[in-house]
Amino acid sequence: MEVRIYPNPSRPDAGLKPKQESQRPLLPQHARHCPVLEAGSGLGFLVYPPLKKNEAFYVEHRGDGRYEFKYFVANPAGGWGPIFSVTWTLPIGSVGMMREEVAFAMADPGVTEEGALRMARAFVVPEDFGTPAGAITLRGSYNFKTPTGWDSVYTPVLNMVDRPIAPMMVVRVETDWYAHNSEFRYVLQPGEGLPGSHNLPIGQVHFVPREDVQLVECNQKELEEIRRMKDEFAKEKVAHRTTTRFGLEYSPHYFRQSRANREGASEDEGDDEGSPDS
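Above: the chain's sequence. Below: its structure in token form.
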């Protein structure tokens, strides 16, 4: 299956392309010997903010309907310096207009007030602030167009267990016909914020077929086959146990069997393509 990608229209020249990654550096080392955990982490594609290598931002929920965005640029020495900040204040009781205030951190920032507002909107969606209370929406560097009948599901980065973890609202979009910008809506408490950097993913996207799923009870024959497979796997798992240099015991049987199944399926597809009957 092919999924088309196209860049953030506000910053088409910035940001890493989406990629699959099964490793989570902050997980314990023994998690790397859990193939089902790594397969879960590698599900879909990581999405990054539309930032260049020398750029960063920090967006914060200040409480009382106030949200602040700060934009930073790296200097030649490698340090980070603030360029400008934008503060949005929501109307009390949702009646009235949202107020925007731009503040510059230097005398000659190289950007106008209007330019700072446009740049900030390339990273966040102010119209989503406060829905629900504390919500902050981050924009991705690339968007997706799926084949007919496939949807995109936007989630936080899977298996990121370092605390504090901000909850995120998961959405599913019919991206085969709707041009949806990659957006990730986190919900923060007052005083909490989200950082943005060139190589720090802001979320994960998954592609699923848009078809109904029916749950059907297994018959007796199928149950017997399931039990047989379970017993056979347990025996093979014990037979292939191994020990790492640090004394951790694990079995690579699941990983080996999964890889063999994928390689076998690939060979079958190649045989079918070359078959005179195809």
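Residues 253-274 form the longest helix (22 residues).
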